[in-house]
From TrEMBL:
Keyword terms of this UniProt record: Chaperone, Fimbrium biogenesis, Signal
Domain EcpB C-terminal: residue ranges: 151-224
Pfam families the record matches: EcpB_C (PF18649)
Family: Belongs to the EcpB/EcpE family.
Highest taxon above the source species: Bacteria
Signal sequence extent: 1-20
Descriptive protein name: Probable fimbrial chaperone EcpB
Lineage, uppermost ranks: Bacteria, Pseudomonadati, Pseudomonadota, Gammaproteobacteria, Enterobacterales
UniProt-listed InterPro entries: EcpB_C, Ig-like_fold, PapD-like_sf
Gene3D superfamilies, sorted: Immunoglobulins
Length: 225
């Protein structure tokens, strides 16, 4: 959903199995008419992995976002918080929102800590843990406002989100700088736009008759131009 530093992959120990856990999409959304969602986690390695999960409220999913205190202690609950995953298995992490039902969109950093289990530890031998790997993967959870409002303005090649929830923008049309090897291939832009932000449609001729613009709110498509 968002191109952010907060959605990062940090390897504490580089190894062939450090990328064992597949956490799926960078962004997970709890819709306005729901109070829960789920995310599938897969162990694609050939060894046992121990995965722990935690959530932190953040001010924004963009680069400038910082960790902030939740408004309620039980604002966002998740289960399980720790999983032992044999090779080739998957598990479901569930998220439950119990926060305020208002017109505000909320963002959470979901951090998955993936630790490998060495042969010594796996066999029950209390040795030094040789061969252990550890990786930290962060994704974003967006909770749409309970009182959601979709509103936007498009003027002269720039679209502004005047509502209170993020949406995905899809633009396609004639390229301003066509590819010499494929000059008739149209250009396409896809990006997410947060509330109270604007963005220009770049690299596409927005005055051309072939220009089309629309937004996606989850699975609902809304034509703009």
């Amino acid at each position: 959903m968002f191109n952010l530093k907060s959605a990062f992959l940090f390897l504490l120990f580089i190894s062939s199995s450090a990328l064992a856990i597949n956490v799926g999409k960078v962004t997970t959304i709890i819709p306005a008419d729901a109070d829960s969602t789920a995310k599938e986690i897969k162990n694609e390695a050939d060894s046992v992995r121990i995965v722990s999960v935690r959530a932190q409220r953040i001010s924004s999913p963009m680069d400038e976002g910082i960790v902030i205190n939740p408004e309620k202690v039980d604002e966002l609950l998740l289960t399980p918080t720790r999983m032992v995953m044999p090779a080739g298995t998957s598990n479901i992490v569930k998220f439950y929102y119990h926060g305020n039902a208002d017109n505000k969109e909320r963002y959470y950093r979901i951090t998955f800590t993936d630790e490998g289990v060495s042969e010594e530890v796996d066999s029950g031998s209390p040795k030094n843990g040789t061969g252990m790997t550890r990786a930290v993967v962060s994704t974003i959870l967006v909770v749409q406002p309970r009182d959601k409002k979709i509103d936007f303005v498009y003027v002269a090649g720039k679209i502004t989100n005047k509502g209170n929830t993020s949406f995905r923008v899809n633009a396609t049309g004639t390229c301003l700088k066509p590819n010499p090897e494929s000059p008739t291939t149209p250009c396409t832009k896809n990006f997410y736009l947060m509330p109270d932000t604007s963005r220009a449609i770049e690299d596409i001729n927005v005055t051309d008759n072939h220009f089309h613009l629309g937004i996606w709110d989850l699975k609902q498509f809304i034509p703009v131009k």
